[in-house]
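Interim report to the steering committee. The following record documents the input for C2H2-type domain-containing protein (269 residues).
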Amino acid sequence: MAFIKEEREDMKIDETFRVKHEDTEKQTDLKEESEELNEIQDKDQFKKHDFVTGQKSTSHSQIDTTQNLTQKRPKNTGTRCHFTCQQCGKSFDQQGKLQVHMRIHTGEKPYSCQQCGKSFPKRGTLKRHMIVHTREKPFTCPQCGKSFNDHGNLKVHMIIHTGEKSYLCQQCGKSFNEKGILQRHMRIHTGEKPYKCPQCGKGFTRKGSFNRHIRIHTGEKPFSCPKCGKSFTLKNTLKDHIRIHTGEKPFNCQQCGKRFIQKRYLNVH
């Protein structure tokens, strides 16, 4: 039972801090794209004018960019010109946005972290990365005061307070508050086990279960008791052990009132 409980906890934690909603990602990308566009417009205003008027520029960067885009002018529609990426076909309403997009194909990462040297294609991504070094958590939940280093994580957290469950399983009708949890739930119906043990070949539906299984082969016991130093492979096993030192007995019999350290002892009783 402790194993199952821990697995559920791992599932909730993994999805809360690993999975980002698609809407949040799109909003962030749009904000970053706008910042990048403003920067490019400030630096290369004359290049943009040359391109729109059709005049050739001798700038090397101008030649590289025009080789990877197509300008379309809809007839008498009043709509703005579109700049299309020749690599993937995606279109943009401004040349600066295309220039930012082209970094996906060129691999250009002009923004570097002064702390660790890691580089990023967008300035906004670098800003979010810097939180790793500063440990800043600027996004605070108005309900409980808990803070997060990313706005997407805060949005996921808020579901705890709203109780929203908008992701419905079409197989059994069960609903979930996160898309990632629904995707993992679907493995119950599909039988998919994407995590395979390289030692014995056993498959698992969840990464947390796979990581715990690996410890059987490695002998790793990462959870140590601060009182006596004894180590355990599972966090919940350590929690049960700690009660030996504290004397806590949270499980009581409804019939006779006798209390136990672990639930399994109550079940046997």
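Residues 125 and 176 are 29 Å apart (CA to CA). The committee is asked to note this result when reviewing the revised timeline.
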